[in-house]
Amino acid sequence: MASSVADRAIGAIIGAAVADAAAQPMHWIYNPDRLNEVLSDLEPRPEFRPLSANPFYRRTTGEQTCYGDQAYVLLESLSQCGDVDVKDLTKRFYEFFGPGTVYDLPVNDPYRKEGGPKAILPIDGPWRNASLKAFLKNIDGVTKLAPVVAMFAGRPKMLEKVESAVRVTQNNDMCVAVTLAAARFLERFVLKGPDPDALDAVVAQLSDPNRKNPQDLDRAVVALPGAFQAALHGVLTMTQLEEAVRDTMRRGGCTASRASFIGACFGAQTGLRGIPESWRKRTLRYPLLLELAENVVGKRQQL
What we know:
This protein has helices spanning about 5-25, 30-40, 65-80, 85-95, 130-140, 145-150, 160-165, 175-190, 200-205, 220, 225-235, 240-250, 255-270, 275-280, 285-300; strands at about 55-60, 125. By secondary structure, it is mainly α. It has one domain (about 5-100, about 140-300): ADP-ribosylglycohydrolase fold (Orthogonal Bundle), CATH 1.10.4080.10.
């Protein structure tokens, strides 16, 4: 049975979160020998490793990375406000990641002086990535765009809303340009489902002088930089969410950021039916995520 736009919008949100949780125990393994050692105990299903192999931080399997947590905070804000409310989102980010939270560990201190005592890794708790540290000091784009695209796909201001949300923590022109390119892909999948012409269509949009929400760096993004290219490769060459996430996990490095975009794109093509039920059950926040996702997508009709 064909999925509806609403089904696919919910799938995008849940797909991103589930894939992030699946990759979390193997996030940030950059040593090839260590990666191969870890994989040898898990293949052919490296997802949801029972014990974290992350060399930087440890969280309970099924919890989100800092990327998944950012997307969750954004989803909460959208559910409550029915729109991208920068003031509300800023407050929620500070309350979730700031002083007195599980993220408030010495190694994560945005004011930590260089040359001070080195942290003993891995830490027991979550890790603030660079953008969160900068956000907390000055009060990651693709990884948290699914809730905004799910709410505004097909609406004239979709890209504007994505940019407003991203710049709360990552006020960086290249990050914004890459995130908007990713949003264009995800929007097509939400609106159309599987789309073999997605790459050509998005490249054409980025090259169009009359494109919506133009960025000075759009032409540079046509070259598909870095991790975005790796994530997009999984979306365009694989046929199932779990297959694509497993493949990107085998590459090591920032697996969770790539996995979340891959999960969002596959979820947007299939809806919940394309996201393995066993993966959903192992994502600890899934019931709440589903409730929030349904509420956010339900508000699409009011826009």
